[in-house]
Write a structure and sequence with these properties.
mainly alpha
Length: 291
Amino acid sequence: MTLLLRQPTLRLALPRELLTTCSISLSSRNFSVLNRPPPNYEGHVPLTRVEKAGLAIGSAIGSLINPYRGDLIAALGEATATPYFIYRLRDAMLSSPDGRRILRDRPRISSNTMSFKYLRSLPKNTVGRAYVDWLDREGVSPDTRSQVKYIDDEECAYVMQRYRECHDFYHALTGLPIIREGEVALKAFEFANTLLPMTGLSMFAVTTLKPAERKRFFTIYLPWAVKNGVRAKEVINVYWEEQLTRDVEELRNELGIEKPVDLRAIRKADRARRKAEKEAKERSCDSLGIN
């Protein structure tokens, strides 16, 4: 294999992902838990194939039991992103002018890089205002995103980090809340758009929803997610830092994303309906003298 890869013509003909996989395989033939190679970037933890498989299985089970364990979801995303999917996402960025600039500039999204005071001063119809309003409404912070550490390629590790830190912008753009039902709907959209396995596996959390919530997912939010995720442009290529003052509806139209039905409004109306039905039943029982 080493001799074949040294041939220039064959090297040019092979896909980039295959070359990377082959080179990693050849260079780490003696890689084991007792003979671990040095990290490729700060915080990197090289894992054997067996360790990655164990990490994927364990984090998948754990995150299904508790979908709010962000650390397990992050580990699942990293363990299942290679050897193909994260390279596909990186190549999607390389094929876009904005994506290439993001890979060159390596911007980060946190409270240190975003002025929330400035964002709150923006008009309500702007991307930045929609983002900070969503953070305030849901009570979350961009500083909670875990650092990538289990992806071997340094550039691909940044791609995963960028996806992770942009997740709240996807929430703000779609209006989906962080409750379990909203997260499952957004993960379905992300899977259709990014093809990252973790986003698809996260949809198994639909089994933990209440019957009415599952019905809403399959009749309203899954069809919306598939339709919009497939037809929309690659959201990983949005340079969010440059879109903050832009009209949010204009950006949705450009990306090809239709805002879904307000989930919180649906849940609120459903609670009001159930309460009214309960009160009507109690009044009926009182009129009949039934305790």
